[in-house]
Design a protein that fits this description.
By secondary structure, this protein is α+β, with helices and mostly antiparallel strands. Helices cover 23% and strands 35% of the residues.
Length: 110
Amino acid sequence: MEITDCRVRPCSKEDEKLKAFATITLNHCFVVTDLKVIQGNKGLFVAMPSRRRKDGKFRDVAHPLDRETRAMIEQRVLDLYHQELERLGGQPPASSDDDPGEEHADLEQE
């Protein structure tokens, strides 16, 4: 499996634990949106897309089945997150109101 595209959008609020949204494309044919870059107690990590269940708990919508795949996704997303921050001069953008899945909206119509 190959990550053929990765997009990261840093969030505008500096003090929040949520640092960015990410979208990855696998093998040019499968898109996973709403990955999140989170500041945890032990540093940054990538959270998989999830939904709140009726009982209030969150459950992943999509997730890797092994550690190697999770590490590959996390490395790619975090590398791009740091590149985006560097491009922005180390500061988050002024606004991040864009829909995280917006860049692939045209593909959903096909």
